[in-house]
Amino acid sequence: MINRFYLTILFILPGEITYGQSPKIGDKLPYFTLDRVINSKQNIIKAEDLRGKIAIIEFWGTWCAPCIPAMTHLDVLQKHFSNDLVVIAVSDDSKERLQKFLTKNPISIPLA
């Protein structure tokens, strides 16, 4: 019985490890569409819109205390390197909550 358990773990574990691999510099960005974009001229951002630019896609939340100062730093980076850099902050917060965040924290990066 114990051997069966270990064999099951042995076959499942490698799949879990390879699933969560980190991207490497030079890897191609997979296709995606962000269709709930605010604080941007575009309402929709697609992966191909970022072609030829350095992209920082920040996953964050309005509830995340360390994320809030990071947004300010990312906004400064975006402004300084605006010709070559695109910063997009992706959150699972509602549009209303993101708007409220922008009222308290005026930044210029797109939020999705």
TrEMBL record:
SUPFAM superfamilies: Thioredoxin-like. It holds the Pfam family AhpC-TSA. One of its GO terms (molecular function) is oxidoreductase activity. Residues 23-112 form the Thioredoxin domain. This is TlpA family protein disulfide reductase. It comes from Dyadobacter frigoris.
